[in-house]
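U., I forgot to send this yesterday:
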Amino acid sequence: MCQYSAKNGNPSKWHYGHLQQLAMSGAGMMMFESTAVNDQGRITLKDLTLTNTNNENSFKTIVDYLRNISKIPLGLQISHAGRKGSAQLPWIKSNAALTDREQAWITVAPSSIERDINWPKPKRLTLNQINQIIVDYRDTAIRAKRIGFDCLEIHMAHGYLLHQFFSPISNRRKDEYGGSLDNRCKLLIEIATEVRKIWPGGKILGARITGKDWMEGGITIEDSVRLVRKLKDQGLDYVCVSSGGVVPKTNMIFKPGYQVHLAREIKKRTGIITRTAGMITNYSQASEIIENGSADLVALARKFINDPTWLIHDIKDKNGGVDLPNQYKRCY
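Result:
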């Protein structure tokens, strides 16, 4: 979950406390929050970025710090916000763009279509700019490799730039990056291909994708199956199946496990390792998802923040082993 607490794109003191707590949660992996591949790709002014030597050194320091206190594998999610960028911090004003007085910047997108009323129109990306974004993803992946992350996840969902290219709601281009489904997948596949070339074969590479836009004329599960097959062909190890987000309000109905059926369908039809997320709040619910074959992995965020030790208790209650710090063992 984005913390919107970076300093010049670097992890701050807030991140040290936040991530240390999550590193001792008993989870099987911890993903660092969505990190921008360039400054224009930030959601807010306080986003993490991995674009320069200062960023890289700062990330390396916090990764080394976490490895000294926990054996939990560490992953990094990389992204570009596209037209969803230049936004207010959510606790100041939700779903609101920055003003010029607040250091707003010009956002970019596949087409010059605003994401909602009261949001500025983004600039349509040129082919040269698209090529530069591919380079930015590759360069960020190279930095993540040098830092030593165990997993890299390309963010292609939640209304960010790659989702904007994939969805016909936000992509009205008439060139090689728009129109047909294959064309709308093109940038996503090109980025996945470039990242796969430099990411070590023995480490995990995945993508968070949109299973469905929950809107008439938007992405369907059929579209997503086609995309995932392409990603699998490029050597990605897994996909995390999310949904919605191309605009602030859709027809999505939130309920426990509301996205599990999308992961199940993609897993069944592509054979790729799938991860699911969304209103999964307890051990029994997560275990049932795995046991019935709906997904291979389950991601949770809010639950670990509002109840940091819940998983440790649940595992121990079921006579399972959990790797606790020596300093804490007498507390359980």
